[in-house]
Amino acid sequence: MCEESDLKIYSIGHEIKAINHVMQRKMLASATDKGIDKVTVMHGWIIGYLFENKDKDVYQKDIESKFAISRSTVTNILKLMEKKGYIRRISVDSDARLKKLILTDKGAEINSVLTQTIADNETRFNSVLTDEERKTFIYLIRKLRNGLENG
Amino acid sequence: MCEESDLKIYSIGHEIKAINHVMQRKMLASATDKGIDKVTVMHGWIIGYLFENKDKDVYQKDIESKFAISRSTVTNILKLMEKKGYIRRISVDSDARLKKLILTDKGAEINSVLTQTIADNETRFNSVLTDEERKTFIYLIRKLRNGLENG
DNA sequence: TGCATATAGTTAGATATAAAACAGTTTTAT
DNA sequence: ATAAAACTGTTTTATATCTAACTATATGCA
User: Fold this and answer.
1) Strand D positions within 7 A of protein Cβ atoms
2) Could you tell me where the DSSP H helices lie in A57-104?
């Protein structure tokens, strides 16, 4: 039970926060370089997702499941993104409950500027660990969560 | 580059959130059972830390480094905890910059009720994985972070 | 047809979180 | 001695996050 191998939840949380933080810094640097809005990592991911799926219908609920955030968080984030002019949220006739998400020109511009940075981040994130290590890591974090949930 | 072994930061974040969530639920259940305030996981950790170190001087900056949260977040959390009556924050003569943290009786009572739940959480968290797996996990998450930071 | 249930999204309230700018206080170096 | 630098904590501003209660709509079944 030595300090080194004792696992604290807040320590893991800290590593994750640090990882996010590095990504955020790189995105801010790119945005400043290119003279575009400084967007958060999550905004960047959502913009990228909408760009990739611009030929399909994407609704708020899809963001919820894709990024595993609560419904109300989705509302908040997307409202803010709309206010900043990156997306529009449009009611559709087929189902009045849904709001379809459309990337604006401004959103698309941000995507084109940040795509490389985000891709670099993802690539680096996936190249730091070997394939084997990455599989192990995913296995372990899921085991941890399941073990805790079913305990 | 198949979906299964592709590592997304938000996926990891999601696992961590889920883990925290399980702990939070268990703490709320305990608090309801015993008729005490419902405290957050972080409040529980801080209360436990102050109880363990009640013979030592603990300042706000110690919370900052112990739990790896920013200075302003520490201010917010501790102010809230003081408002709820779990702690007091006292200026000391030796150094006017410091605020010493004192666990109140109410804080100590919460500690005595939640200690078992928190310890159970920690124990389970540390028994889900074998020693070997735990070491591997810590190694991998640090490698991930360092690789990203120095890339 | 019509009611119960499920689904999509919003709002309110609470907490967490960080960066930046700030105000004192203490230490260090010259 | 004093000026610069470092340290500790606060405030402001902005964002993220959840739960619970809510509105509105759609679907399914009896």
Assistant:
1) 7-13, 15-21, 24-27
2) 60-67, 71-83
